[in-house]
UniProtKB/TrEMBL annotation:
Gene Ontology BP term (one): carbohydrate metabolic process
Domain of life per record: Bacteria
Position of the signal peptide: none
Lineage: Bacteria, Pseudomonadati, Pseudomonadota, Alphaproteobacteria, Hyphomicrobiales
Protein name (database record): UPF0271 protein
Gene3D superfamilies per UniProt: Glycoside hydrolase/deacetylase
PANTHER family: 5-OXOPROLINASE SUBUNIT A, UNCHARACTERIZED PROTEIN YBGL-RELATED
InterPro entries tied to this protein: Glyco_hydro/deAcase_b/a-brl, LamB/YcsF/PxpA-like
Name of a matching Pfam family: LamB_YcsF
Length: 256
């Protein structure tokens, strides 16, 4: 049976966490950078443990006022220190709860920057690899994140977005541009089915992109997010597609 992972970014104060945790198979947990704190991390990890949802860390720029959606210029070591602090907090709480963090997924501007800039992504992922060589990276498929994860030898989970528009080169359309977020439920469901069944995503200009992504991000911060996520899951299951965490790739061969 064909299977695909559904993930959501949680602990961001949107009020949708409990409902989404009944729908998704992986939870990317904000860990104090753009959002989240020790209490929210613990609560979500406890629900993950009870419901069998895979848990991951979701660090970003430490910029909660702007929700981590703007790039910040700073020395690389300072940024790496911020990421390490977030991961250590989440891992410490995970150890206490009895839930291992399986992957790291970068948030917002930090995710977009690593998707575009290979050297920057390698620096970030190398720091994560030094902390835990078995930690997988959930990376935007066909982006520099994938090449960087392979370059440093991190297990890889390829991700696509249910409701974000894509450029012709496989990156996400900037939220500053019209049409960056898809709001039509039927179109989002069709996108997810086509990805799961045919490995294709249609870009905003009509270009058909090939994708090996086996994890789909369902956002929790848009109107009707829970209802849309539930509809996506039901449509996938009705098509005979199992919802389950994707096993990370461990083939690290890559040419830079």
């Amino acid at each position: 049976m064909t299977s695909i992972d559904l993930n959501a970014d949680l602990g961001e104060g949107m009020g949708t966490d409990d409902a989404l945790l009944q729908i998704v198979s992986s939870a990317s947990i904000a860990c104090g950078g753009h959002a989240g704190d020790a209490a929210s991390i613990r609560r979500i990890l406890e629900i993950c443990k009870a419901s069998g949802v895979r848990a991951g860390a979701h660090p970003g720029y430490v910029d909660p006022k702007r929700f981590g959606r703007f790039r910040i210029v700073m020395p690389l070591e300072q940024l790496l220190g911020q990421i390490r602090e977030q991961l250590l907090l989440a891992r410490h709480i995970g150890d206490d709860v009895g839930v291992a963090l399986s992957y790291v997924k970068l948030h917002g501007a930090l995710a977009n920057q690593t998707a575009e800039e290979l050297a920057f992504a390698v620096g970030i992922f190398a720091s994560i690899q030094a902390m835990d060589a078995d930690m997988a990276v959930m990376a935007l498929d066909n982006s520099q994140q994938v090449r960087a994860a392979k370059a440093v030898g991190l297990p890889l989970i390829r991700e696509a977005y249910a409701d974000r528009a894509y450029t012709a080169d496989g990156l996400l359309v900037s939220r500053k541009e019209e049409g960056a977020v898809m709001h039509d439920a039927a179109a989002v469901i069709a996108r997810c089915l086509r990805l799961a069944e045919a490995g294709e995503i249609v870009a905003i200009d009509g270009t058909v992109l090939k994708s090996s992504a086996r994890s789909i991000c369902l956002h929790g911060d848009t109107p009707g997010a829970v209802e849309l996520a539930r509809s996506v899951r039901l449509a996938l299951e009705d098509a005979g597609i199992e919802i389950a965490p994707t096993v990370p790739e461990t083939d690290v061969s890559v040419r830079i």
